[in-house]
Amino acid sequence: MAKRAVNFGAGPSALPDSVLQEATQGLLDFQGTGIGIAEISHRSKEFTAFVANLESLIRTQLDVPPTHQILFTQGGGTGQFSAVVLNMLARHRLLHPNLTDDERVMDYIITGSWSKKAAAEARRLGGGKVNVAAQSTHSIPSHESFKFSPDPALIYYCENETVDGVQFSHDPSSPASFPFHLLPQDTLLPIVADYSSSFMSRKIPRLADHAVIFAGAQKNIGPAGLTIVIVRQDCLVDVDAAAKLGAVPVPISMSFQTLADSDSLYNTPSTLPIYIAGLVLERSRELGGVQYFEELNRKKADKVYSVLKEGEQKGVFRGKVKEGHGSWMNITFDVLGDGAEAKFLTGAEAKGMKALKGHRSVGGIRASLYNAITEEQTDGLVTYMREFIAANTQ
Ligand SMILES: Cc1ncc(COP(=O)(O)O)c(C=O)c1O
């Protein structure tokens, strides 16, 4: 086999070698059944036990309280852009049947491309009005600028903007934190968070206060095709009863209540991605859980931001995100000068470092440092960046 590249891609992205090797065995024989994981029935006792264990690996590592269910589904983050709107509008309809669509408000916080897309989907589906509660580019909006509605159907934010490299800080004293303190305290808040590109990379602040947290698996924990949804019990509602009151009907495969009632096995789940995610999270548990990755990811990000700063001082690089608002997972910057970006990418490729090109919509460089990227691989990138600075400074 050719030497594996260091894959700094934003998703699908790197997975641990040891897990991939183990998975090749599982493809031939899943847990001694003599049947491969891509072939075995999702209703077999071995597979259902595997799903239950995956649930518990997430629950224990993230401290998910019993007030919340963990669901597995398909459709990716984009599927959840629709599902959260439909389920949360149904919940709101049951709570407030007589409001008009204009009075039924959904608060969106826009910090980059993915939250913008999610808000566009909410507008497209109808059944409620989108209020942009705060918005900014290249930074988290200032806390003073947030304008939450009095009783919204949902309050939506994207914790880590994968394309733009903007992430909410998990330090509550930081101006880049999510302003939970501006929300009412003694009520079940309809907070919905897209954690697609930071799930399992560090603890989730105020997890218990969220109505829904969702994530596609294909960044930190597995292949594309599995979506994880953590839903508070009061958001598992009878969507058909809501539809009778005028809510937008919810496709059965998107109904949180249906998924919960069937232990995420209402229809055939994505068996292979579930399997690989289970192996990844078992390995994560053995290493010390999310806390282990939190420390590692902090160190990795600090190292890259630090060399980025050196490059800024020398006029070689320019970070795209305000200091303190940058992502630990996706670090975005420009390489200054004619042809310099192409030179940077070619030099990186020559050293076996791939997929550093920024998203096509924004250009520049994006280094994604998901859980499977080791500290050693990060050091390799840092060394290369430092060499590039030296070679391009007069
Ligand atoms: C933060 C975030 N949300 C949503 C999505 C969309 O996910 P999917 O492609 O699984 O629909 C992505 C994809 O990269 C993402 O990074």
TrEMBL record:
Keyword Transferase set for record: yes
Keywords of this entry: Amino-acid biosynthesis, Aminotransferase, Pyridoxal phosphate, Serine biosynthesis, Transferase
Gene Ontology cellular-component terms listed: cytoplasm
One Pfam family recorded for the sequence: Aminotran_5
SUPFAM superfamilies named in the record: PLP-dependent transferases
Aminotransferase class V domain ranges (all copies): 7-379
Catalytic EC class: transferase
Catalytic activity annotation: O-phospho-L-serine + 2-oxoglutarate = 3-phosphooxypyruvate + L-glutamate; 4-(phosphooxy)-L-threonine + 2-oxoglutarate = (R)-3-hydroxy-2-oxo-4-phosphooxybutanoate + L-glutamate
Record's keyword annotation contains Chaperone: no
MF (Gene Ontology): O-phospho-L-serine:2-oxoglutarate aminotransferase activity; pyridoxal phosphate binding
HAMAP family with a match to the protein in the record: SerC_aminotrans_5 (MF_00160)
NCBIfam families according to UniProt: PRK05355.1
UniProt protein name: phosphoserine transaminase
Native organism: Tetrapyrgos nigripes
